[in-house]
């Protein structure tokens, strides 16, 4: 697992060999330490180069070992190995190709010199796994770069390109050629030279003025980045240790902090997210289609129909993935404006042409319809596309909730029709729901999943039902939030509870950002509000269940959110982003409660969380029961990458498992008893069955789900 060879007579080349990313598994650690000792004791060896086999230097510690302390403890510890590397009396050069991440960069920091390929990238991304760089990285990096630059890298976990790393002083040299050959030549030139100053553990941290104020500020910043997450705060504490303590004391602090994080639920949740993200690519459908058996036809040309905000973002995402795109907008003034906006986002033309005529989509391999949410309009477009587009072209809709199968019925190629549910802004957000209807072919799903990967998206294959997975689960969450306002809560209270849980924005701020009118239009389409509702119908009941008209009333007042400068909050002007409490809303809610004979009661944050999150989770179990999502992991990927669910809480289904399924069930039963007219609070049968089977771990839920009808 670590190759050892002597080249040019005096250079020991140690090559880490553990495909695909050369992670530092127990076997690699064993091999590394043996190789370092061999190099130390061989009198012929005068210098050492450490590299990665077949490309990447090293992707860090083996994350698969993290769930099991006995795995972590088998083989030598990284700290011990890196100490031996740093202490070697012969120059050690890291030859970095591909990437040096986490433990991989920590290894490079223990080397005396760092050579990088010009396309390599380096980083300490442990924070996104709920950890800190716990093999000396939090102590060595600040000594090399200074506190500011090191803290930025450690707290954000960002990958730094080779050019920037050279400027920062993290890499000593770059090469466009063979990195190992260049490192070997350099190692030979360094043979016999003093090394003391090259050992970062020997160096003091560059001094920093106003150190207390600096770290206070850093803590506030870290808290704001990911609310409730422990790892960013521990990273700040560790770097503070580097700035204020001798190296060995700093290492002790790093170790203590790492042990606490490593055994925490947050690290477990973040690790789960890491594998969930990658697992989504291994999609399956109940018809037997699988990611590894289905050949996807490549897509190289696309057409986007409708150039509103979504259509523009989709055009940019497709063009950035290297597709040649024709963007179609039948309204001329909108077309000009969209062309300017897309060019700005792409910083130039970027393989996009524009047309006001749907015929321009004739030659595309894929068409994405992104007009506004109106079934009749979409049906008409799909009818036209069916005859305009070449045979074999895939026809996708970017609807966020409408029936894919109904659109497929308007075409002569229902097996080539699917949903591509992008999230706004489409060129930024990582999630893509790939929605298949009952007639969508496996090849169509395969092609869409492959395209999603090319766009850098986390693509999740889901089935067809109103709202698919994400928006279907969002509905009960939003509904409970409205009910809580009726019962006495304020938007500020609800949002504070959710933000403290870790969402970047509470439900009402989010609603203001995306526009209250969107949900209003959907509710009108569903016949829940608007002209279809007769005056004799009770205002707070629809189809025998509790309904809150609060969102509709807000829209009737012209309060659409940020775009109108007024929504659940007040904004300085239309389009402004800073939300302020609005006294008008307080009186509006008071009058509303009075009109409907509702008595405001004290509501605490725990009730907010339980009502909103348990209702959402309950719907998640229904989604699994119906087979609309293939696994709880897929649901969690959707929520983490599309809806801001905090990574350190793993996703709604993981959170339910962590809280305890029995406790979630008990909570739902309690709230359903108090609100029997709210069916979303009625525990679903899958949750009951899971609890009855002893609440198995999340990766075993599928065994309980099995046997149920599936719509995928
Ligand atoms: C009781 C307390 C005791 C305390 C003891 C402390 C011990 C720990 C001490 C030191 C701290 C060091 C910590 C770390 O190093 S944590 C790891 C840091 N590294 C990362 O976060 C990098 C993660 N990987 C990536 O970002 C990417 O994979 C990539 C950029 C390296 C490559 O990207 P790409 O080419 O797109 O490939 P994939 O992402 O699809 O990955 C391919 C494949 O490889 C698996 N994989 C990737 N990285 C790792 C890894 N570090 N360990 C194990 N497996 C890894 C990945 O899961 C994919 O496989 P698949 O899931 O089967 O598809």
UniProtKB/TrEMBL annotation:
Cellular location(s): Peroxisome
Methyltransferase recorded as keyword: no
Keywords tagged on the record: Fatty acid metabolism, Isomerase, Lipid metabolism, Lyase, Multifunctional enzyme, NAD, Oxidoreductase, Peroxisome
Catalyzed reaction equations: (3Z)-hexenoyl-CoA = (2E)-hexenoyl-CoA; (3E,5Z)-tetradecadienoyl-CoA = (2E,5Z)-tetradecadienoyl-CoA; a 4-saturated-(3S)-3-hydroxyacyl-CoA = a (3E)-enoyl-CoA + H2O; (3E,5Z)-octadienoyl-CoA = (2E,5Z)-octadienoyl-CoA
SUPFAM superfamilies the UniProt entry points to: 6-phosphogluconate dehydrogenase C-terminal domain-like (SSF48179), ClpP/crotonase (SSF52096), NAD(P)-binding Rossmann-fold domains (SSF51735)
Segments forming domain 3-hydroxyacyl-CoA dehydrogenase NAD binding: 302-464
The EC number(s) this enzyme carries: 1.1.1.35, 4.2.1.17, 5.3.3.8
CC terms in the record's Gene Ontology section: peroxisome
InterPro entries: 3-OHacyl-CoA_DH_CS, 3-OHacyl-CoA_DH_NAD-bd, 3HC_DH_C, 6-PGluconate_DH-like_C_sf, ClpP/crotonase-like_dom_sf, Enoyl-CoA_hyd/isom_CS, Enoyl-CoA_hydra/iso, NAD(P)-bd_dom_sf
Pathway terms, separated by semicolons: Lipid metabolism; fatty acid beta-oxidation
Major localization class: other
GO terms, biological process: fatty acid beta-oxidation
Domain 3-hydroxyacyl-CoA dehydrogenase C-terminal, first and last residues per copy: 467-571, 608-695
Protein's UniProt keywords contain Isomerase: yes
Stored CDD domains: crotonase-like
Pfam families per record: 3HCDH, 3HCDH_N, ECH_1
Subunit structure: Monomer.
Family under the similarity heading: In the C-terminal section; belongs to the 3-hydroxyacyl-CoA dehydrogenase family.
Name under which the protein is recorded: Peroxisomal bifunctional enzyme
The organism's taxonomic lineage, starting at the top: Eukaryota, Metazoa, Chordata, Craniata, Vertebrata
